[in-house]
């Protein structure tokens, strides 16, 4: 099967968590919006899916994965769907629930990172909410960031299998997502994030292990992985990085 992934062009966004899973598994997929509009791609391809009539279970927003006749939306939901077929999640119910629980917690984490620069909502430009962003970021760096990093460091410590992974002895989709969040954190807060990660050796090892994976490494080197930028989830504003 060739999966079709729909997400806004020009940014990694939430779709990057899905791309990393598809790349790690060597799955065939089409990043639809990257195609020229003349070939059925671009933003209009996304709008066609969102505005389609006759869809009984319509998606609210991208990312959206088309698998055969199914449309699956919401990043953790897509990864829950893909975890089994891509062999990126345990087979047993308890293991699948634990994997999904970790992914949902990662979702909470990267939303808090996003909210540092858009605390009043993404309908306002960053320049319209600088004061609120500074206040929100101070709390995030002092309280929320250590709490999240401490939790995931403990999860890694409690996994008694060999290797740098959170679940068992092989990588799962939360490992890929956690590595992406760490990469985004290092872009957004190179100074403050770097200081916090110095005390989290297992998380640093997880990040390095993921991006050293052969397929992930080839994906990064291919040029298909977009760079972080200030239109994306993770944004770097030097005045916030203290």
The CATH topology of the largest domain is given as Glutathione S-transferase Yfyf (Class Pi), Chain A, domain 2
Largest sheet: 4 strands, mixed
Chain-averaged pLDDT: 96
Sheet with the most strands: spatial strand order: 2-1-3-4
Q: Architecture of the largest domain, CATH level 2?
A: Up-down Bundle
Number of helices: 9
List SSEs in N-to-C order.
EHEHEEHHHHHHH
Return residue spans where pLDDT drops below 50 for at least 5 consecutive residues.
none
Task: Determine the fraction of residues in helical runs and give it as a percent range.
Answer: 40-55%
Number of β-strand runs? 4
| Backbone CA Rg | 18 Å
- Given the helix and strand composition, which structural class is it? alpha+beta
Determine and state the CATH class of the largest domain.
Mainly Alpha
Explain how this protein is built.
With 242 residues, the chain is an alpha+beta fold. The protein folds into 2 domains: 3-83, Glutaredoxin (3-Layer(aba) Sandwich); 93-225, Glutathione S-transferase Yfyf (Class Pi), Chain A, domain 2 (Up-down Bundle). It has 9 helices and 4 strands, in the order E-H-E-H-E-E-H-H-H-H-H-H-H. The protein has a 4-stranded mixed β-sheet with strand order 2-1-3-4, covered by helices on one side. The model has no long low-confidence stretch (mean pLDDT 96).
């Amino acid at each position: 099967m060739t999966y079709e992934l729909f997400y806004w062009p020009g940014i990694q966004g939430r779709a990057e968590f899905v791309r990393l899973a598809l790349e790690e598994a060597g799955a065939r997929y089409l990043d639809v919006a990257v195609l020229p509009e003349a070939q059925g791609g671009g933003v209009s391809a996304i709008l066609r899916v969102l505005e389609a009539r006759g869809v009984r279970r319509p998606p609210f927003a991208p990312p959206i994965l088309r698998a055969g006749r199914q449309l699956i939306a919401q990043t953790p939901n897509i990864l829950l769907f893909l975890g089994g077929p891509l062999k990126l999640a345990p087979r047993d119910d308890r293991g699948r629930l634990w994997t999904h629980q970790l992914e949902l917690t990662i979702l909470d984490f990267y939303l808090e990172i996003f909210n540092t620069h858009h605390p009043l909502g993404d309908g306002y430009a960053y320049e319209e909410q600088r004061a609120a962003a500074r206040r929100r970021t101070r709390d995030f760096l002092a309280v929320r960031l250590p709490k999240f990093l401490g939790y995931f460091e403990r999860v890694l410590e409690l996994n008694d299998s060999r290797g740098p992974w959170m679940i068992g002895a092989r990588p799962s989709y939360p490992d890929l997502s956690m590595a992406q969040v760490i990469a985004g954190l290092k872009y957004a807060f190179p100074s403050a994030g770097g200081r916090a990660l110095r005390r989290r050796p297992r998380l640093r090892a997880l990040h390095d292990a993921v991006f050293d994976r052969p397929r992930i490494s080839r994906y990064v080197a291919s040029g298909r992985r977009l760079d972080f930028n200030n239109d994306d989830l993770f944004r770097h504003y030097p005045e916030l990085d203290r």
